[in-house]
Structure formats: structure tokens, C-alpha cells
């Protein structure tokens, strides 16, 4: 038996919202060329968490978990990379 339609819709919406939630931060950092307000520790933990979710998805062979967390990893990884690129001295 497959996943009910309502569960699929809710899961898809959750994944899309999670993925796109990083976009405003990426745009802000890129436009301002400043990432001093971004917490390095927070994004290191976030990237690590998404990596663990991907590993979990692989272990249980859950492709929606793998795909959505890979996209989130890429977006949060972009914030982390921009943090390193545009950090000010002393951050």
C-alpha cells in the first residue's frame, strides 16, 4: 500500500518550504557581501544534521528523505560557504 495522497502533499510542501527557507539568507548575504550576522556554529550544526538525515535515508532506503535533505544540505551548505567567504575580520 502506498502513501496516502494527503501525506504526500504535506510531505512535499514541508520539503519545499524547508529547502526554500535558506534562499532569503543566501540572497541577503550575496547582495550585501556580508555574513557577519550569520552564526557559524548554527550552520555547521545544520549542515551536519542534514548530512545525518541523508545517511539515515540511505540506511532505510527512503528516497524522499534522501532527496529533500540533499537539497537542504546544498542550500545550507551555500550559506556556510558564503559565511566563510564574506566573514569580516574577527568573526
From TrEMBL:
Q: Name one Pfam family in it.
A: PQ-loop
Membrane topology reported for the UniProt record: Multi-pass membrane protein
Keyword field contains Transferase: no
InterPro entries reported for this sequence:
PQ-loop_rpt, SemiSWEET
Keyword match rRNA-binding: no
Q: Which UniProt keywords apply?
A: Membrane, Transmembrane, Transmembrane helix
Question: Organism's domain of life?
Answer: Bacteria
Q: Which Gene3D superfamilies does the entry link to?
A: 1.20.1280.290
Q: Where are the transmembrane segments?
A: 6-26, 38-56, 62-82
Q: Where in the cell is it found?
A: Membrane
Q: What is this protein called?
A: MtN3 and saliva related transmembrane protein
Amino acid at each position: 500500500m502506498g502513501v496516502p495522497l494527503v501525506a504526500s502533499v504535506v510531505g512535499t510542501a514541508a520539503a519545499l518550504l524547508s529547502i526554500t527557507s535558506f534562499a532569503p539568507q543566501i540572497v541577503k548575504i550575496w547582495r550585501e557581501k556580508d555574513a557577519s550576522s550569520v552564526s557559524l556554529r548554527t550552520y555547521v550544526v545544520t549542515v551536519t544534521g542534514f548530512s545525518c538525515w541523508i545517511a539515515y535515508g540511505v540506511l532505510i532506503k527512503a528516497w524522499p528523505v534522501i532527496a529533500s535533505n540533499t537539497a537542504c544540505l546544498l542550500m545550507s551548505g551555500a550559506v556556510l560557504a558564503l559565511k566563510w567567504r564574506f566573514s569580516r575580520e574577527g568573526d
